[in-house]
Amino acid sequence: MFIKFDAADGEALADFLAGERWPFHTIEIVERADVLKRVADGYYDDETYWIEADGERAGIVRLFDLEDETPMFDLRIGERHRGKGLGRDAVTWLTDRLFGEFAHVERIEGTTRQDNVAMRRVFRRCGYVKEAHYRKAWPDASGHKHDSVGYAILRRDWQTGETTVPDFHDE
């Protein structure tokens, strides 16, 4: 279940984000004060949703760049809820929402680290196609740089259920 975030819930969001480790995000350990500042600045106001499972807040999804033809998203599932299909549910939900409610959206894009096997599996299962591979482009907290990979889904693929694979052998 997806529940729209309300700024009055800022403390709960700060507790959630600061209370977890986010190993495949640029900032693995989020500071509570930073979340509260972002809430106050309106960072989460537009299209941010709690993901609820088993009667509790299990994650959060934030949709952004909604004015573009290619919006993006940030997805975070709490550690206790990982591996239970919530990522797949969230990506399916946000894909349907963006294509269903934003007529100008032609593709949806997401990026993750190469070693985030679970998220890469979610992308593929939800009809997204790997379009990019960026070598040593994603630094972690220690400064080690990981490869990052980009996935996207086209509106026509979503509509038809088919997958259009890029021609990587065009040189």
TrEMBL record:
SUPFAM superfamilies xrefs: Acyl-CoA N-acyltransferases (Nat)
MF (Gene Ontology): acyltransferase activity
Gene3D superfamilies (UniProt xref): 3.40.630.30
EC number: 2.3.-.-
Any Pfam family matching the protein: Acetyltransf_3
EC top class named in words: transferase
KW Magnesium (keyword) present: no
Protein name, per record: GNAT family N-acetyltransferase
Organismal lineage: Bacteria, Bacillati, Actinomycetota, Actinomycetes, Pseudonocardiales
